[in-house]
Amino acid sequence: MAFYKDERIALFIDGANLYAAARALGLEIDFRKLLKEFQARGRLVRANYYTALVESDEYSPVRPLVDWLAYNGFNVVRKAAREFVDRDGRKRVRGNMDVELAVDMLEAAGWADHIVLISGNGDFRRLVEAVKAKGVRVSVVSTLNATPPMLSDELRREADAFIELTDLGELVARPRRDTAEAEPDSGD
Fold it and tell me: pLDDT tens digit string along 113-139?
């Protein structure tokens, strides 16, 4: 799908989904490059990054990234993740940002020409359908090259265009390192 220089673009990043897809592909996203890539494709009006954070952790590898994003052109939407113990006695964390992303994306359909959703979550299929009904073009960024694929077939079919993360990764990923995988960082 083509991008047009005069169109208003809104970027919606499902942080957990992007992290999982990039990790499955062995990519480390450089968020500065990601922002510049979509600024070059049109008039990037908003770049939202959605994440849940465990508030009780003194240090989380996500926290420096979230801070960097907030100071460098991203609107970070976050909420506290819920901690619980499963029936096997293991500590688990749950922090779903789907509703927040969906509400914000529907609101953006009132002013955006093109929405880029970075997520492969099939739960967003109906959201994409609703946004398209408002006359907004929707591109989905995810990957089919991971095992298993990180993109729902229903979401891919509903979107106006699909952008393979491995193709985008050539433009927005850091060069691969020979060392063991590092924790996500800010993009500095």
Answer: 999 999 999 999 999 999 999 999 999
How many separate domains does the chain show?
1
Distance in angstroms (rounded) separating the CA atoms of residues 36 and 123: 28
Tokens standing for 69?
A: 């994003």
Write down the H helix ranges in 13-152. Answer: 15-25, 31-41, 62-71, 98-108, 125-133
Q: Which residue has the tokens 């293991």?
A: 90
> So what's the pLDDT on residue 8?
98
In sequence order, what are the beta bridge partners of 84? 92
Confirm whether 177 is domain-assigned.
no
Closest by CA position to 62, among listed 100, 18, 103, 122: 18
Mean local confidence (pLDDT), 41-70: 87
Number of alpha carbons in the 13 Å side-chain half-sphere of residue 21: 28
Structural domain containing residue 131: 8-172
CATH of the domain at 53: 3.40.50.1010
pLDDT in tens, 141-157: 999 999 888 999 999 99
CA 101 to CA 98: how far, in whole Å?
Answer: 5
Tokens coding 116:
């880029």
Residue 5 has pLDDT above 80, yes or no: yes
